[in-house]
Target: Extracellular small neutral protease
Amino acid sequence: MKFTRTSRASAKASRRLAAIGLGVTLAAVGSALPASAQTTGSTTPLRAGYTGSAEEASNNKAFFEAVLDSVARKQAANPGLQSVTVYYNASQAPSFRSQISSSTSIWNSSVSNVKLQATSGSADFSYYEGNDSRGSYASTNGHGSGYIFLDYAQNRQYDSVRVTAHETGHVLGLPDHYSGPCSELMSGGGPGTSCTNRYPNATERSRVNQLWANGLAKALDKLNKVR
Ligand SMILES: [Zn+2]
Model:
């Protein structure tokens, strides 16, 4: 799906991008991301991360599986754990501290089978920030753990908490659905920059609950068979 935004924002972004220059943009990303993350595709259109591509869909799936596996390993090591907790480290995204905190509250009040929790130590996934022509996205570092990248320009164009909650929705297993209405969180940039809904709808909430009830059981089962 084509990226949609207001022409004024578009012109501003173009000027800004022209001023920054691609080389500097990539260099800035390079310093913020794990080395292996820099090799993922760079041929998607400007700010595609919030409005979609086939590559995004497979990245999102791989990311969810990485997080699921990470949580399952912990669960297997501590069978007494009652609730499923996904830990995140936000130390590499200091500008988005309040958005990440809001997104965490939104998700924790919306679903019951999985909880998000901040940690300064080793985490199931991490948040990063910077400039990237691909926009914001969820991906894996290629070594079994996931990260969410938050793009500065995109977070100025769109409601920043919505962007953060949307990307976090990928951690919890939801795919993109850009043709959906603003009332869906996973419609992302589809409904345009005027959409400020930050909450998953009932269908999205029940899908996450289901994924973490059934998906985690399956991931645990797989781990146990390998042993
Ligand atoms: Zn997305």
User: Anything to note?
Assistant: Residues 166, 170, 176, 188 surround zinc ion (CB under 6 Å).
